[in-house]
Amino acid sequence: MSMVELERQGAIGIVRLNRPERLNAMSTGLVLELHQVLAQANADTDITVIVLCGAGRAFCAGDDLKEFDQQSADAAAIRTHIEGIQQITRDLMLSSKVVVGAIHGYAVGGGFEWLLNCDMVVAADDLVAFFPEMQWGQFVTGGVTYLLPQAIGHQHAMELFVLGERQSAADLKARGLVNWVVPTDQMMAKALDVAGTVAEKSAHSVGELKRLLTRDPPADLESAMRREQAITIETFARAEAAERVKAFTDRDD
After folding, report:
1. Cβ atoms 97, 90 nearer than 8 A
2. What is the second-level CATH architecture of the domain 4-200?
3. Of 63, 67, 162, 229, whose CB has the highest number of CB atoms within 10 Å?
4. What is the spatial distance between Cα 23 and Cα 30, in angstroms, rounded to a whole number?
């Protein structure tokens, strides 16, 4: 049985962690399969938006501690494991496709990192997220030492990293780290609704926006405006823009 599944619903690619007996913990095999499935989804031109979720009672419980001895056997093993986890961050954030997280149950350590790597997040009301790494003498990955302070500020990021306190869906919503909180049984329907709305937008324009925000963010206002100008000139000249504007104006006539 695959530890990661890809299901297509029109332009939506549903990427599902499928190791429920271990709460989708990050085994070496799961991380490798997730990279392969995300690469497949990112390369599929018929998929314009990705929904990331987990089967069973949790999204992802973080590192599989039963594999810790194997993952930490020597410097090469540690490097391989961490590079695998961080490759998932690249697959999610450096993709041109919007990634909507449908996150429920536990999102712990690396699972919390992958939540933060999503572009939008629908959280189930049973979500529990926290960073246990400082307690375990480990360290965070997934680019979150860059992402989290930007999102909530240095002091709040330090609170989450160092104290490792459990955060509910409501806590994360209040901090601006998830977009929607819904009952668990409504989570996938809401995520698919959001993904469907994204899929109706211009995949090219949305892709350019994501690249600007995540791959090479502007350093200051002037550089932002220069980049915006270049992209806007390019998108205005595309046939798609004319077609979409005409469809909109014809509808209003």
Report:
1. no
2. Alpha-Beta Complex (3.90)
3. 63
4. 12
